[in-house]
Amino acid sequence: MRSRARARHNSCVTPEELTDDPSTAPFDDPLDAAQWFSNTARVLTETRGREATLQRVVELARDVVGVDLAAVVTLDRENRPTLLAATDDCVAEKIVHAQRVAGAGPTWEALLGNKTVVADDLTLDQRWPVYRDALLADTEVRSVMTFCLLVGDRPHGALALYSKHPNAFGEREQRLGAIYADHAAFALSEASEADHAANLQTALSTSRTIGAALGILMERHHVTADEAFAMLRRESQHSNRKLSDVAETVVQTGEFPPPAS
Q1: What is the pLDDT, as a whole number, of residue 197?
Q2: Tens-place pLDDT, residues 167-185
Q3: Which of 24, 34, 168, 208 lies deepest, with the highest CB count within 10 Å?
Q4: Per its UniProt record, what InterPro entries does this chain match (predicted)?
């Protein structure tokens, strides 16, 4: 475990500075700490796109709490853990695989129960024996702390923090992690909503383009809407291009092969 944060008075430390040197985070001064977390929230919310935000969340989490590995995990449609982002994909995938095989684990428990789960010492913990044995055999992880990233009643995954040392997550680390997890949850919520809005806009634009292409084909070839759509689909399959791309070409050039006789 990295050394804990030292006090640094009379100056504000930004998240960028923390990424370079986690030991400079000003958590011993309440006002500096409040300013630091304000800056952290700004950095997270200004990151564009859900994938980029996820990666920023784990990188800052690693440095904020001072852990060896940070990851965000969600559950798929079959309620199996799935890795979304990590500071070390190789080790994180091993941990997620161990939970899938075991059918239990701290991240699973945090997500299903919408709560924080801490394992102080995996060598002594008896809650998830199959998972515990896999981690002890295949990784250097000895303690785990997991937060459900909850906004309202909607979880956006779980933030899982791992240390090579037992008893790494005392009251200070738990409180610090909880505050950061709240910021991360809101940032992921905003990023997801922004991506959703962008996808809707793209879908609307695509729909309009296809509609315009259908109108052109219907007028030029004197066919029905269904026949025009069949023409677009055939050209898409024949040219191995997306239907939306074919439609865009029709709209821009007005060119299209004549209908089959």
Answers
A1: 57
A2: 999 888 898 888 888 888 8
A3: 168
A4: ANTAR (IPR005561), CheY-like_superfamily (IPR011006), GAF (IPR003018), GAF-like_dom_sf (IPR029016), GAF_ANTAR (IPR012074), WH-like_DNA-bd_sf (IPR036388)
